[in-house]
Amino acid sequence: xxxxxxxxxxAQPNVFxxxxxARCLLTFLAGKWHLLVIDALAKERWRNGELMRKIEGISxxxxxxxxxxxxxMNLVLRIDMGTVPPHVEYELTPLGQDxxxxxxxxxxxxxxxxxxxxxxxxxVPLDYV
Amino acid sequence: xxxxxxxxxxAQPNVFxxxxxARCLLTFLAGKWHLLVIDALAKERWRNGELMRKIEGISxxxxxxxxxxxxxMNLVLRIDMGTVPPHVEYELTPLGQDxxxxxxxxxxxxxxxxxxxxxxxxxVPLDYV
DNA sequence: CCGTATCCTACCAGATACTG
DNA sequence: CAGTATCTGGTAGGATACGG
Lengths: 129, 129
Prior knowledge:
The structure is a homodimer. By secondary structure, the first copy, chain A, is mostly helical. Chain A has six helices and three strands. The first copy, chain A, has helices at residues 21-29, 34-40, 48-54, 60-72, 94-112, 114-118; strands at 46-47, 76-80, 88-92. Chain A has a three-stranded antiparallel sheet with strand order 1-3-2. The radius of gyration of chain A is 18 Å and the shape is globular. The model of chain A has no long low-confidence stretch (mean pLDDT 90). At the A-B interface, helix 1, helix 2, helix 5 and helix 6 of A face helix 1, helix 2, helix 5 and helix 6 of B. The structure holds a DNA duplex. Chains A, B: Residues 20-118 form the HTH hxlR-type domain.
């Protein structure tokens, strides 16, 4: 359990500082699946299986792992109905919703500017369309 | 050289689609260094060495590689002064500036909410402060 | 100063099989 | 249905040395 520094005013969060937790968090969140999972949970709760289908290409293993990590960061809430067979839902916490808005902005921008970004660029696989 | 599809209205960019270029671009941009390099170039041009010092922990190899990739995406402009010894500057294109705003919003949010995110979390190295 | 060329390793994450 | 456990390879990226 992490104990916050006594004097937080001394702490200057800075993603450019290699040792700063903010940097670690950025690197972490900018992993392969975190952004997508948060985006997927934007509007409503989803069950494990629903998320699997929504986020094409993610494996059960990575989905679970990512959700656990987001849980640890107070971004996602895991709701276990306690039934048999199991029924589990995931939803964003208020903190997660706050972050989600930033991420969605980024995701939508990438979608909107997709063609600008791949112009003159053959390093992105384009088997889409 | 990529040729844009004749009928773009048929293309529905979607990061959840594993084959969509938008998905590839997101995964790409959300790599370990892309977000930081774009953030670093927010306000002014920087030289190679300056970026190295600004972005703690990045290697020359990864910096060059990342800058090249951003160049290919029309996000960064490389300005070679053609002098000896070499003097090269990098700056964001208008497209890059547009994306930069989204990224900075994300980065600042992470910094601002750092302590919320690491509460109850021992999986982030905290040798900072 | 601004790179490139190699080599090499850790670990990310996919595949598969199994459980309550 | 919602997970774990184990094995495995591919590759991102670090370290190092060299070059214009």
